[in-house]
Amino acid sequence: MSSSMSKLVLGLSCSITLGIVSYVHIKQKADRDKMHEGVIKDIERQQRRKIENLYMLERQNDLTKQLKKEMESS
């Protein structure tokens, strides 16, 4: 009886350990994937910001040219 009880406890312990190890690996993979998504979002945000900055620079150049024309004609 003691032998079957010890086998049961050992089996249960191994099952729980396997479950915990599996959970940790799955959680780590999910965290890595989430972090990678954050990096991709950062890159996209930087690209959007670069496009916006280029647009603003172009707009400022146009306004500067317009102002120079107005100053010359005055």
UniProtKB/TrEMBL annotation:
Key words of the record: Mitochondrion, Signal, Transit peptide
Keyword Hydrolase carried by entry: no
Pfam families: PET117 (PF15786)
Signal sequence coordinates: 1-19
GO BP field: mitochondrial respiratory chain complex IV assembly
Location in the cell: Mitochondrion
PANTHER family registered for this protein in UniProt: PROTEIN PET117 HOMOLOG, MITOCHONDRIAL (PTHR28163:SF1)
Protein family according to the UniProt entry: Belongs to the PET117 family.
The protein's name: (diamondback moth) hypothetical protein
Record organism: Plutella xylostella (Diamondback moth)
